[in-house]
Amino acid sequence: MKIDKERLAMLKEIMALDFSALELNLYLDTHPRDQRALALHNEYDRKLKELKGIYESKYDFLTHKNISECPWEWIKDPWPWEIDYEMGGK
Amino acid sequence: MWIYEKKLQFPAWVEGCDLNIAKLLFAQYGGPDSELSAGLRYITQRYNMPIPEAKAILTDIGTEELAHWEIIGTLIYKIVDRATPEEMIKAGMGPHYIQHGRDLYPHDAAGVPWTAAYIQAIEDPITNLHENMAAEQKARTTYEHLINSTKDRGVIETLSFLREREVVHFQRFGEALRLVQEYQERMKHYK
Ligand SMILES: [Fe+2]
Known about the structure:
- The complex is a heterodimer of chains A (90) and B (191).
- Chain A is mainly α and 90 residues long.
- Chain A has one domain (5-82).
- Helices cover 56% and strands 0% of the residues of chain A.
- Chain A contains two helices and no strands.
- In chain A, α1 runs antiparallel to α2 (35-58).
- Chain B is an all-alpha fold.
- Chain B is 68% helix and 0% strand.
- Chain B has helices at 19-30, 35-45, 52-81, 85-100, 125-147, 153-190.
- In chain B, α1 runs antiparallel to α3, α2 (35-45) runs antiparallel to α3 (52-81) and α2 packs antiparallel against α5.
- At the A-B interface, α1 of A face α3 and α6 of B.
- The structure holds fe (ii) ion.
């Protein structure tokens, strides 16, 4: 399923940021005192929260933990496996 | 607890309709070294880990594996979605089509259903972590076999991402193993 260009670009940016934060999360699990990694993790996390907020108010919920209008917005298509990611990471 | 996020970890894409690779991708959906085995193995093993670093890494990698399971499911879904039953049967997916249609099902590339016998949890954290390191290597090799079996650029790019994750997981489990060994060494002196 095609989604509009601007939305796809923002979604991919969220996915990339989220992945960076997760990679640092795993690294920090076994290096909990690494201050550089911690600072980087916190920076990504801050950017991510901001971007997710914009995406959720503009397009669609990322989790059900949102205040919805009627009808319940969480069920909106498309679901992640249906989206056409157009050449993926590029 | 877990919460679903309405996004994939990686923008999984397919170029064409390579049904042969769709059939083989079931190795990672419901095979012995699949993402499903990995996720359930780590999440099951975490309860008796002796140090917080190990509880965290098993929880977090286990969770990530379920996101990889979703990526494999997405690749298969996207390929099969474009196929007719005749095409599926011609590509060797006849048995899958007859029993599951275009739905996913946790079986391996040969149709053998997933079983908990693929995974172990045996309390000893050293033993468990060694199993996990071996599992990551087996998954890496499976991805290499899969990458060698298709020309679809989307599938190759997506599988390359997943292959790299196995390398990182192996590294993190190795670090957790070292931390557990150091912890056990320290504990000996207090006895
Ligand atoms: Fe893994």
